[in-house]
Amino acid sequence: MLDEERLRSESLENVNEEMSTKLSTQKFQLDEISAKNEEINKLIQKVNDLECSLGEHKQWLEDANNRASYLDNLNREKDQSIEEMAKKVEDKEHGLAEVTTSQEIMELKSVIENLRREVEEKNDYICQIEKVKGEVEWSLGEHRQWLEDANNRIGTLENEKLDAWKKVSELEERIAATQSETSMSSDAFNEMKSTLEQLELKLAEKVDECERFSRQKTELEVSSERLRISLEEAEKSELLAERKKLEEQIEERDNQLVDINKYKNELEIKLNKQEELLQEANNKIKKLEEEAYTRKDSVQDSMQKLDDQFKELKEVNEELHKTLLEKQEALSTLPEDDQMMKEICQQEARSDEVSELLSQTNEELTSATRENEELKQVIEDLRRSLSGKETELSDLHKLRNDTEWSLGEHKHWLNDAKIRIEELENSVKHLNEEVISCNQQCERLKAENNDLKEKTEQTVSEEEESKIDDQINLLSTIDALKSQLDQKEAELSQLYQNKNEAEWYLGEHRCWLANANQKIEELQKLLEEKDRTIKSLETDVQNYITQAACEAEKYQKLTEQASLVETKLIEVSDSLDHTVDYRALIVVVAELKEKLEAKNIESSKVMEEKEEIRLKLQDQERLLKDVQTRINNLEKIIEEKDDSIIHAYQEINDLKTELEMERLKHQEFIQQSDHIKNLEQQLQEKTEMQQLFNTENELKIRNLENELSDRIAQIDQLKQQIDNQNITIKIEVLDITLIAKDQEISGLRRRVQSITASDSEIDEEDEELLEALDCLEKKLGEAQEGKCELNFIECINVVSDLKARLRTKLIKCETMRKGCEETECLAREERLRLKEKNAQVEQLAKLLSIKEESELTVREQVKENFFLSALQLRSQLEKAQCRLNDALNFMTQIGDKMCDESEEAKSLFDAIQKIRDEVEWQIADEHKQRIEERNQK
Fold first, then answer.
1. Whole-angstrom Cα distance, residue 278 to residue 341?
2. Which UniProt keywords are present, listed alphabetically (predicted)?
3. Mean pLDDT of all residues in the chain?
């Protein structure tokens, strides 16, 4: 027993050593697998990044497509807006010229639409003709092939017929030879007859076949003739119908051209009328200018006359006063005389005349002002009539500028789209390079996986000699590794699928980019395609002409081949006649096309003439603008004249008021002493107010300083409260984290206990298995010694139980491994969480420090603000004191000036009269200069 136990202990030690070695190898393999897992995760991250970039590219492509559609819509809208603008311009031109009406515009639009429809119908007719021509050519080709086959068949039959006649002639010669020979036997003669009869039957059959073929040939020829006739009739009918339609269209075009010419003539007549009206308006304006100049001259003359009369009246009044004073003195000294009375009466009569002259001058002034007002009304009417046109023209200019700006924006957007497309192409190239690198890495991983498989197979081959338990364990580990490798291979296959999908998406995106570029190029090449279609139609016409010539040559070849048959010659002659008719119809169609081209040229000329009319209208608008500028200049001149007249009246009134003011100043000078006393009282009151203001400001400053100290104390209290709150928050956070960690630790302890319990269970199961193995070994030893017999059934049952126990044990081991792996993952996650929480705690500490610093800065700023406010108040007080001192000085200066002004008043009166005379002379000189400048212009 001791020996067996030793052997078992040694075997267990060996097993443990082998298990340790295998575990070390497994750890090495697990490290390799973890490295590969990391590489696979990196690849997955790259794939995800690529998918994100693909999503971005999709978004960019959708944006580009939306931008392209948006540009298409904008182009359509701009085209519509341009059309609307053209319509508006036409409407405005018609409204300015008062030439056309809305009905005429609608008629012109209908004419243009009819012309477009006709062009579209012609294009449809041309397409139909081309289709019919293709079908006819195809049917003619079939018939030609049938005719060639029939001719070939006829030739073969004729050759066979000739061969048969040759044979008949040879047989007849033989018969003649046999008849001449008398030595011929009757049997040979009968044989010859039979052969002759057979040959005659064959000839009859061949003749019947020839007749059949000839009938078929005639039927085919008849059917071909019918088809040709029907086709030619159909072509003729279609061509005739097209010819009629073209002729009708030409007549309609002619009528339209006649209407357009009439409309053109009417427009020219209306333009001539407008030009005449403009000339009349210009003449009227010139007349008004001349009248204004004459009125200005007359007004200036009248003003000069009035001034002269005013001066004369003043002199007369002065003389009268002087004479009256002298006469009064003389009367006081001398006795009354009749002569003196007569002189007084004469002077009174002179004064009456002077008053009459003054009344007349006033009436003339009123009449001149009335005429000026009438001219102003006329000019205002002209302004109103032109202001509407100015607004319309300004609106048109704005719309034009808007359209140009929008076109510039579209060009800029197109350039941006091209740049964006180039960037997308570069990014796609970069993605392709990354995909290639990913493929290379995947291939490397495959090679490494194959190496690992080979290594595992080698390890399996080396360990086959070990015990059963070790083999089962190794097989389980190998299966696990295989499953992991399969998973990795599946992941690699998914990566390949993702790669293929990414390449497919890239292909789609490239297609979308190509489509977007094609759309942009198509938008740019629409006009070029239209020109190309026109050129292609011309080339098609030339090709049809060449094809017709080739067909004529083929018909000639057919006539040469069918020279032996008379019926064919007749049919070919008919076909040639038909071809001649077809050529004539083609010539007619060409002539009609030439006529249409001529009509189109005429219509283009009409459009050019219409554009010339538009240019003339623009010139007329420019002339209207020039007229408006002239009118504005005239209005400015008239306003200046009115201002000068008003200024003269104001000067007269000012002189009158100055005389009255001088009288009042003498009275005010007496009252200035009282005013100075009032000013002194006001100064005393202001000084008292200043003293009160200073006391109030000092009180305010003290109150502010007290408030500063109170607020600083409040801030300190708040800071203490915040610190206490932060400490409590930190403590609560740490308590919560400790509770969570305690819960996690308790859960881990439970798992460890469960694992230890499962280990104890596994140990008990191992002991039971060892006991069962010992029993089997004893039974086998006793059976070998012959002591007892073996029950194979019991042995089999025991072995099956052992296998089942081993399997359950393996399953439990796998579950334990999985649990260990899960616990390791949880521990890693918890470590990461702890790191994150520590980082959060550090961030909170940083935030608290930042908050404390900000609070300190806030306190300093508050103190600075309070000190600055105090300084500002002090500066304001100092400024107020300076202002009060300045006001006192100013008041004293005013008192001095008032005394000086009383002395200068008399000198001013004389200076004013001199200035008035100088201003009048300057106004007269300026008017003369302006008149000379205008005359020169």
1. 70
2. Coiled coil
3. 63
